Structures are given as C-alpha cells and as structure tokens.
Amino acid sequence: MLWLRLEGLSSADTIKVVCQQLKVTSLPDVIATTVVQRSLGNPYFALELSRGVVECGILKVSPDGGACELAPVRWLARWLEPDPDVTQQHVPCWLV
Question: Is 4 inside any structural domain?
Fold first, then answer.
C-alpha cells in the first residue's frame, strides 16, 4: 500500500484559494485571519468557511466581484467568539 502525506496550505495559499473562490482581490484582515486559524491549512475547510460567511451575510461580495465588505459588528462578533450556549439550531455548525 502506498501512502501520500499531504501538508496543509500555508496562510498565504489559504487566503489565495479563498479569494479565488469568492472572486475577490483581498479579504478583510479579520476574516482572513479567522479562516486561516480555523481551517488549519485544509482547503476544504477554508472554502466551506468562506462560503458560510457569505451565505450568513457576514461578508458581502460585490455582484461584479473584486471587492467585499464586512457585515455589521454584531454578526462578526458572533462568528469570531461563538457563544457555547447557543445551539446549532441558531448557529450553523461550521460557524462554531
């Protein structure tokens, strides 16, 4: 049996993959840092997190691409420091 060990993406590569997926030139620092920390270099997790922040309205991407902006602070605070008492009915599992 042959095993192939894959290393995680670097921080820069993680951000690059997410930017390509969202069709933006850059991410706000707080989003980039959080995606890098939570995905641990796993491209699947990074893409799921980026999809999630857009779907939840935490990050708004302009329709023509290229630019994005953060949502109101209350959403961002919930994403960065989730409340352990909140059930998954209120917060999707990939945000916790």
Answer: no
Domain of 54, in residue numbers: 11-95
3 lies in some domain: no
Q: What is the pLDDT of residues 79-96, one digit of tens each?
A: 556 555 544 444 444 444
Mean per-residue pLDDT over the chain, rounded:
81
| Spatial distance between the Cα atoms of 5 and 92, rounded to a whole number of angstroms | 31
Give every CB contact of residue 14 below 8 A, 6+ residues apart in sequence: 35, 36, 39, 41, 43, 46
pLDDT score of 64: 84
Domain count, the chain: 1
Q: Tell me how far apart the alpha carbons of residues 35 and 56 are, in angstroms, rounded to a whole number.
A: 15
